[in-house]
Amino acid sequence: MKAKRxxxxxxxxxxxxxxxxxxxxxxxxxxGGKKAPAAAAAASAxxxxxxxxxxxxxxxxxxxxxxxxxxxxxxxVDKMLDAAYVPRYKATSPGVKMRALDAELAEEKSxxxxxxxxxxxxxxxxxxxxxxxxxxxxxxxxxxxxTQGEGKRHFFFIQDKLWKIIDEHALGEGNPRGKxxxxxxxxxxxxxxVPGRVTPPDPDKGRFITExxxxxxxxxxxxxxxxxxxxxxxxxxxxxxxxxxxLRPNKPQDANAIDPAVASAIRKDExxxxxxxxxxxx
Length: 282
Fold this sequence. Notes:
Elements: H1 2-27, H2 36-44, H3 70-90, H4 96-114, E1 117-119, E2 141-148, E3 151-158, E4 161-170, H5 181-192, E5 197-199, E6 211-215, E7 219-225, E8 230-237, H6 238-242, H7 244-247, H8 260-269
Antiparallel strand pairs: 1-2, 2-3, 3-4, 4-8, 5-6, 6-7, 7-8
């Protein structure tokens, strides 16, 4: 019986993702099309909150918790790397090869610490990646990246407290996460025991990708469509997420807004308003 319920949840997610595609087709039709009201009704039916999972959303590596500092996360990654290298150490004889392995492990630990990017006054190269929008400038935010094989894990901090983790994964035929975004979302729905909330692209709001999200008592989870053969999993601390507005007092500037200095110059160049007509009799 439980398997049937989970299968139903997975099918529901599949139908939801298929509905996104049909909604995009409707949006491309002329305004006079008969299907526009149906698309509007589908958009308005989107739940205000993501569904609560029936299983706890687990964070990796084991021992990581929200609110950890950059130093604490680096120390935890050291332990994770040490454990990952144990099989290689067992297969390596003492001597030159062992010293080379020591150097390789030390370099990986050092590379993680060097990966730190502080989002201060100057723009960074991250602005040209899909991670743009996951952070802001001048709000004491930073990011560290761990690269292992083809995968990457990004740790986001605000006021030196961990509040978000984003994992980037490949998809494809035979991949355990799924061959594409839709199949990956179905697998997640089965794992979490409930279909997720689907958020389709909305260019007018600056959103160009599809997301499916869930939450539990402590964590908000987003499955992000990265396009052909890729997906990202975002984990966010719900407490920090609810306080982001106050934690980010410096808001991003509108790229289309007129520079204040230019606006002031324009106002100075404008002719002064004509005086009101005088009464000749007076």
